[in-house]
Design a protein that fits this description.
- The complex is a heterodimer of chains A (292) and B (302).
- Chain A has 292 residues and is mainly alpha-helical.
- Chain A is globular and about 55 Å long.
- Chain B has a two-stranded antiparallel sheet.
- In chain B, α3 crosses α9.
- Classes of the chains: A mainly alpha (292), B mainly alpha (302).
Chain lengths: 292, 302
Amino acid sequence: MFQQLLFAAVVSGALYALVALGLNLVYGSLRLLNIAHGDLVMIGAYVAFWSFTLLGISPVVSLATTTVLCAAFGFLVYVVLLKRQLGSPALAQRLEANSLIIFYGLSVILQNGASLAFSATSRGYQFLDGVHSFGGVSATGSMLLLLGVAAAVTLGALAFLRFHVAGWSLLAVIERKDAAAVVGVNVERVQMISICAGFAIAGVAGVLVSMTQQITPFMGFPFTIAAFVVVIMGGLGNIAAGIAAGFVLGFIETFGVALTSATYRSILIYGIFVGVLLLRPQGLFGKAVQAR
Amino acid sequence: MTGKPFMIAAFAIVAGLMALVPQLGSEYWLGVAFIVAMWIALIQSWSLLSATTGYISLGHAVFYGIGAYVLVVSLDWMPVPYALALSGAAAGLLALVVGLPVLRVKGPYFVILTFGFAELVKNLVMLLETRLGQFSRMIFDAPSLEALYYAMLVLAVIATAIAAWTAQSRFGRGLAAIRENEVAAEAIGVPVTRLKLFAFVASAIIPGIVGGLLVLRTSYFAADQAFDPAVSFTIVTTAIVGGLGRVSGPLLGTLFLVILSELLWARFPQAYMMILGGLLIVFILFVPQGLAGLIRKGLGRA
């Protein structure tokens, strides 16, 4: 029983870490809080669902198509909504303050667009649902695939930030944008790539979610909140601590629900969210990020 | 400014015309007017905190929901007017209790906090209702729509009057100083904490009563509907489309919203929400002064 719960906690922790990674990338380099982040998870889930049920395309292939689609969407959002504003300091200041509201509008558009196009019915499909048992744990193949992909993406991101020179410029932009520009980092380019990568990671997470749960047009919102919880616990813009915080949330959620009942799930998540923001808006572990 | 008596007269004429709507004898138009008054009251009260101080709240529906819930529960023990007063008091009390810690959080953090806080309260009420074995509640013998409409209109007038008074008062200038630079405002002696808390509580009472009136109108309460985040979304969108920082903004925004919703909401609810989302983005980016600002600019040029 305990091992099974532990496994469930690791699976949901990996998913939260992955979803939050994308949110954190966008916040870190653009200082924009993307409240529509969970809705990109939803889009990834629908791409995988329709590819599988209509065309018989494996979700493994959909991982690649959603990466491209969501990155392209990120590029579009960057060019159409953000680029001009980010370029001029006066507008950027206003954009930062208003970014949440802009993404709030985007979120409503995506949710209702999906509901209009696909109806609000919840949907699901069966993929790799054979059960494997080892060491007192039963897991479906889709869960193992989810873990593998999430681990590969998060570890890949960490390695990129640690070892690649482009990762360093990303870290520099997260740390101090103006100083990064002085030492020759192409800030605009880093920001554009971050938003594409952040959106793509959300889409990948959506494909993984669609293999293991039912999907609806309004499924994104809880993911947004969970990602916010994780990112705030880890400290906004602090990538590595955010990944650790994803697992913390996975454990708290899984064991909290096991000790009480499933009806407490959302109260637990929102309660942690409100509590963390009230007590330590600069993050539980990790250094302070100026709230300005 | 010669505009001030003119504006007061214009508001008085609008209020007077709205008071005449029941004379039309049309249930449909009375319903529309009720909704118009409701949004004006909600948006003016939201603006009292969010437009003046820049502390944008995405969770205004929480006060509306609490008001609705308190009304539907207290109606078993007391007549309607007392229950409505209790709705407003409960919403104000909630704001007072959470105000100090919540208002300490600044900038984008405050914005997402209000969002999550509203969802937390919604889920707590839903849990409480499930525990009590209630999934929805009905109201019998609610007052007539006409009576409810007059009550709503009074609220809309009060909310607008408060907004107009705030705009030119010492209190309002203190709030504006908080928006411009809170640290500097505090340094020159503006009691920022007290002002913010006062604005927060004041902005919560009216939606509390509005929530109570709406439940009486629909005769039905379900927690997920009363705390619907779409209400908060509509408030923010309408306020921004109408124009922040002007008393006429919420009126223009509401007019626009109600026309749009009459045309679209019943037949194409999703398209309606998508259009609202699009308007929000367009106005924030390109028309930050809103309809009120556009009109003023147009008049200035003419």
